[in-house]
DNA sequence: AACGCCGCCTGATCGC
DNA sequence: TGCGATCAGGCGGCGT
């Protein structure tokens, strides 16, 4: 699943590729991903508009565009979210579209493709979701004081609480497990029962795990040659033809039964809030 | 107001 | 072999 690091890496790669590009046409092949914006409204707003900026907020891609309305210029915000299986890439106009291409923006010789197998992602003018997000974990607003205050209010298991985007933005199922492993905390601990030293450790672990993942993702070349060696100029996501670096660097996620890298005990899987949690029963208390 | 639960989706995997 | 059932999971919405 794309979480903060994956989205950050994607944004860094994509931003210079879309900047100053003008949208010639908009094709929506799956209306649900643009909802609640209508297809007509999206086309109206984006056609003729020019990309000015792209940043990440939590797991969201925040595109800024500029369009003309008569003599005046209007700023537009386009919000993208990759859901579980979403991808975004620039491809040559002639390259075949993937089966689940949901939105295609015509940029002239190339196009920006938003593809999402399960259609859980978003590509919309509705920016309401941003107002519900908590602080950026790698930013200054993610203070120890605010973090502990929020945890004190919650009786939920800490693993489940870390998935709450209003607590801190950008952590998903993978990095929740990874951060707890790094902080040596059991995923079952009630959020409000963490001691101050443990909260401090967890905050540091979250930041370290995310920072490392971003650095790692920026270091290892993504698949720059497009899916199935098509002529995509840029492609984000796992490619079955390349080694699975992505999984290799995760310490506990999806490693049930394998020995813990630190102590050798078998990693366990448990279900919390209908999601898999992975942890080391010996290291994490 | 915190929290549990459902629905949304498709593809991989499982059981018979 | 084939096919239906089950599972995975981010997030919004809803009910408690």
How are strands sequenced across the largest beta sheet? 1-6-7-5
**Shape call:** elongated
Query: Strand pairing plus helix content: what structural class?
Result: alpha+beta
Low-confidence stretches: 224-242
Q: Mind summarizing the main beta sheet?
A: 4 strands, antiparallel
- Beta-strand level of the residues, as a percent range? 15-25%
Could you give the count of β-strands? 10
Radius of gyration: 20 Å
Give the end-to-end Cα distance, rounded to a whole number of Å.
26 Å
Order of helices and strands: HEHEEEEEEEHHHHHHEE
Q: Helix segment count?
A: 8
Mean pLDDT: 90
Helix content: 25-40%
Helix and strand topology:
Blueprint: H1 4-18, E1 25-28, H2 39-46, E2 50-57, E3 60-69, E4 72-81, E5 86-92, E6 101-106, E7 110-116, E8 122-124, H3 128-131, H4 144-152, H5 158-162, H6 173-182, H7 196-219, H8 245-248, E9 268-272, E10 275-279
Antiparallel strand pairs: 1-6, 2-3, 3-4, 4-8, 5-7, 6-7, 9-10
Helix pairs in contact: 1-7, 6-7
The structure holds a DNA duplex (16 and 16 nucleotides).
